[in-house]
């Protein structure tokens, strides 16, 4: 759920579809005209968590809405309700050389 004020100063609240997520924010579809660096709230109905974020990217529009990149004001790896890969996992071993 995304909410805030659009570029016309009107408040909005809408269900949004995410495209990309990470511990620092995400990319989602929004059906409201927004401005760069605008503040908005995201809420996750599954976790009941709500976070303030800022618009850091405005992309192309489609039938689903405009692609909007948001950045959390503080990293929130648990907001989306998924476990991200650990950063301390060992690197993948190199592939075997091709057979001759």
Radius of gyration (CA) equals 17 Å
Strand content: over 45%
Overall tally of domains: 1
Q: Note the total helix count.
A: 0
The share of residues in helices is under 10%
Give the overall shape, derived from the CA principal axes.
elongated
Mean pLDDT: 88
Widest sheet: strand ordering = 2-1-5-6-7-4-3
- Quantity of strands, as a count: 7
What does the largest sheet look like?
7 strands, antiparallel
End-to-end Cα distance: 55 Å
Quaternary structure state of the chains depicted? single chain
Descriptive overview:
This protein is an all-beta fold and 100 residues long. The chain has one domain. It is built from no helices and seven strands. Strands 2-1-5-6-7-4-3 form a seven-stranded antiparallel beta sheet, with no helix packed on it. A hairpin with a 2-residue loop joins strand 6 and strand 7. The chain is elongated, with a radius of gyration of 17 Å. The relative contact order is 0.22. The model has no long low-confidence stretch (mean pLDDT 88).
Summarize the structure.
The chain is mostly beta strands and 100 residues long. It has strands at 2-5, 11-14, 18-22, 25-30, 39-44, 49-62, 65-72.
Write the layout of secondary structure elements.
Elements: E1 2-5, E2 11-14, E3 18-22, E4 25-30, E5 39-44, E6 49-62, E7 65-72
Antiparallel strand pairs: 1-2, 1-5, 3-4, 4-7, 5-6, 6-7
Features:
100 residues, seven-stranded antiparallel sheet, 7 strands, 0% helix
């Amino acid at each position: 759920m995304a909410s805030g004020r659009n570029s016309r100063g009107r408040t909005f609240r809408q269900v949004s579809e995410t495209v990309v997520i990470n511990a620092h924010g995400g990319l989602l579809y929004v059906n409201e005209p927004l401005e760069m660096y605008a503040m908005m709230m995201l809420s996750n109905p599954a976790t009941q968590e709500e976070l303030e974020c800022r618009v850091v990217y405005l992309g192309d529009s489609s039938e689903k809405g405009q692609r909007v990149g948001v950045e959390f004001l503080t990293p929130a790896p648990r907001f989306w309700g998924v476990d991200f890969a650990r950063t301390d996992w060992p690197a993948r071993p190199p592939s075997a050389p091709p057979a001759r």
